[in-house]
Design a protein that fits this description.
mainly alpha, 271 residues
């Protein structure tokens, strides 16, 4: 029996998937206990009790100045920025990617420009975005859009370009116009690819969001992390980082379920 042929059952997959996080948690608890045994006031590896105590005020108590529950206000602000940016990215990538993929002339004209934009580090553009759009919400959303959209466009355009020529020839033989080729042949096959690209872009999108919030914001998950770092408040930073990870996982699972349920045929072919 070869290891490459061993396919765990669903229950076994869930069990195997829980082992690495559980191992990390156990190692952390041992390390935190050891550090606090030497120095009870240690801030680098806070105990679970210390993290619960620090987060209680952010979760349950209103801020005296704003009247908001800080943790939930931070979460809502970050999700609003991220959701708006990903929506703009998806629509832009679908429109431009379809045009570049379906029309060879458009690809020859604008393909190089998209590639050039895609290789620019988005963080390097952050000062320019703040100068152009100011320190408000627009610059934060724009950073995510600039960082993610070129990748999605290139991936979608390459996918549409690589569609079997037999499909396009048969459709044209039946009298399909360019619009019909785009909407009835290319578009249905591009949508699952777009969702897959969005899933791969979630990590970079969170990086760009947190970077923008850390530099110029007064609310948000990234803003809060960089605000409390000056006080070495790891009892707040670690729960916030864990919460960001949970949100990213939930978004990834939601997109995966959307793709599986909306485009069953695509996942059957990929097996």
């Amino acid at each position: 029996m070869r290891w490459v042929n061993v396919r765990p059952s669903r229950r076994s997959s869930i069990l195997l998937g829980t082992l690495p996080p559980l191992l990390v948690l156990i190692i952390y608890l041992f390390a935190a206990t050891a550090r606090h045994a030497v120095n009870p006031s240690d801030k680098i590896l806070p105990t679970p009790a210390a993290m619960i105590a620090a987060m209680h005020g952010l979760l349950m108590e209103s801020d005296p100045l704003s009247g908001r529950l800080i943790f939930w206000a931070d979460t809502l602000a970050s999700l609003e920025r991220l959701g708006l940016a990903l929506g703009i990215c998806a629509l832009s990538a679908l429109l431009v990617g379809m045009v570049l993929g379906v029309l060879p002339a458009a690809r020859a004209t604008f393909g190089g420009l998209v590639t050039a934009i895609a290789v620019i580090p988005p963080i390097a553009l952050l000062p320019i975005l703040f100068i152009v759009f100011g320190l408000g919400e627009t610059a934060k959303v724009a950073l995510i859009v600039v960082g993610i959209t070129p990748f999605l466009i290139r991936d979608l355009a390459d996918h549409v370009t690589a569609l079997p020529q037999e499909q396009l020839i048969k459709a044209q033989t039946l009298g399909a116009s360019s619009w019909q080729l785009a909407l009835r042949v290319a578009l249905p096959q591009a949508l699952p690819r777009l969702i897959a690209g969005l899933r791969l872009s979630l990590g970079p999108a969170w990086v760009y969001l947190i970077s923008a919030e850390a530099i110029a914001s007064d609310v948000g998950l990234g803003y809060r992390i960089f605000l409390v770092r000056r006080y070495l408040s790891m009892d707040i930073i670690i729960p916030y980082v864990a919460w960001i990870s949970i949100l990213a996982i939930v978004m990834d699972v939601a997109l995966a379920q959307l793709s599986r349920r909306g485009f069953v045929w695509a996942h059957q072919v990929s097996r």
